[in-house]
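Hello,

Our lab assistant flagged a job as stuck in the queue for most of the afternoon. It eventually completed. Since we weren't sure the result was trustworthy after the delay, we are filing this so someone can double-check. Below is the sequence as submitted and the structure that was eventually returned. Let us know if re-running is recommended.
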Amino acid sequence: MNYTSIDWADMTWNPVTGCLHGCPYCYAALTARRFGGHNHGEARFTVDGLNVLEKPMERITKNGITVAAPFPFYFEPTFHRHRLGDPAHTELPRNIFVCSMADLFGRWVPTDWIAEVLDACLAAPQHNYLFLTKNPKRYMELDHLALLPRKGNFWYGSTVTTDSDAFFWSEEHNTFLSVEPMHGPMNATGRIAANWIIVGAETGRCEGKVTPRKEWVLDLAAECREAGVPIYMKQNLVTEGVLERGELVRQRPEGMTFA
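-- returned structure --
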């Protein structure tokens, strides 16, 4: 696991990496391309055409230094099974963004991969686990199979960028919305049934970045305030010139303390 600059989590943990959504603004794909690859000669092990690693692979940097390869197959979906024990090895409670470099609940991810990751979370109950997907119907499918833990330290997030995007909500689970990048005004009616809303500008250095308008963000914040739903505005709303520092609202749901 790694400490992170993502301001709504303490750490990231990536037992699965890679994604097939193909979003043009994806910061994770750029990172995987930058730090991807592995030493020549190491065998690739696949199951049903997907990469599975039982031990770390290595890569050689431009300076000739051998390091662990975080993304040996770049942004191809890869299960790093050797990372499953990481949460249990971190004793102090942390808020962990699970699979920041993947969509764990993407349609291409085998159910047994997801089950193994969730089991690893259950084995280390001292942490809060935050999941985020653009395929929220997978949450419902897994819950129907009794595979989606109904625990207070499990937080199931949906990425929404427009009013028409689907999201997951349940009375039996903690749910949140990540509104990033915000493509237009967001009518929170119905969505504010979630336990938490995060809003921010587009991450990364892509050309043509999507920058939300100030009134979009403030209108969403007003709806959350009226409904009593905590909202967390990311720091990049200030760095991208959307808001002044004093306008940031940084609320967290009950029980979600940060280290």
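-- support follow-up --
The delay was a queue issue, not a problem with the job. The result is valid. The radius of gyration is 18 Å. The first strand starts at residue 2 and ends at 3.
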